[in-house]
Amino acid sequence: MALHKDSCIELNDGHKMPVLGFGTYAPQKFPKSLAEEGTKVAIDVGYRHIDSAFFYGNEVEVGRAIRAKIADGTVKREDVFYTGKLWSTFHTPERVRPALEKSLNDLQLDYMDLFIIHIPVELKPGDDPLPLDENGKFIYHNTDIRDTWKALEKCKDAGLVRSIGVSNFNHKQLELILNMPGLKYKPVCNQVECHVYLNQSKLLEFCKSKDIVLVAFGVLGSSRDESWIDPNLPVLLEDPVLNAIAKKHNCTPAQVAMRYLLQRGVVVLVKSFTPARIQQNFQVFNVHLDAEDMRNVDGINRNLRYDYAPMWSDHPKYPFHEEY
């Protein structure tokens, strides 16, 4: 497909999602005001797809930024595609809609464009987003994810959200939903870690075969948040192959990393709170990789997951024991 700054991908429910999105997650040590300023800059630059989540703790700020840009005439509400996420303490069916309503209230929006299950791992329902027992171990819970999905379908029917999907699901977990009796709406997307070191070719092929869009986070190699990510892992943007291709096209390694995914039909989320970089990343539409570039980038895949959530690896629904 020809990719330009207004390019969208059609979802299986008929709605359209911009192929480039602005991610707003930042490690706890950063002030939430950065998400507000960054989102405003992103909308000014041309981003129309904004990705956040209850768990990021910044929906108040992100909502304020979106509303400010609507108020000053930069965009209309229908120009903005907002994605929110159902956190792991809200999987019991009766907690799904209140969770969505809480986010909408924080955002001060009437509806979300997309609401997705953040991760299949479920934690004990309650007010604490990361519930621990007296030994400091996470307290797990086990709702049938299909019951959670039915509650999401009801939110869509109620008009609180246009599209519904999932995140961090492996193909078996996707199949559980796709094959469930009485399925009303298929997930429109699966948002997963995906980048040149984890190119997700098998999961991408699976999702395409089911008409599910793969949305990529961690495209530039993750936030390297010390509390989650091993600091000894290689820095993706320093990769020599990416840098050689960037030099050849007179662009940045980040643009090559993004463009590679876009040309494979993946929706790309990219996060920066630095105005110059927000602008630079949006110039990805001026870059084009040829077949040789694509093959060379294919060759640096090493199935390296930065964000593999090891603290939940003993959870019955931990998604990353499967190859894809």
UniProtKB/TrEMBL annotation:
Pfam families: Aldo_ket_red. Residues 20-301 form the NADP-dependent oxidoreductase domain. The record marks K85 as: Lowers pKa of active site Tyr. It comes from the Eukaryota. The active site is at Y56. InterPro entries: AKR, AKR1C, Aldo/ket_reductase_CS, NAD(P)_OxRdtase_dom_sf, NADP_OxRdtase_dom. Substrate binds at H118. GO terms for molecular function: oxidoreductase activity; structural constituent of eye lens. The keyword Transferase does not apply. Keywords: Eye lens protein. Belongs to the aldo/keto reductase family. This is Rho crystallin. It comes from Xenopus tropicalis (Western clawed frog).
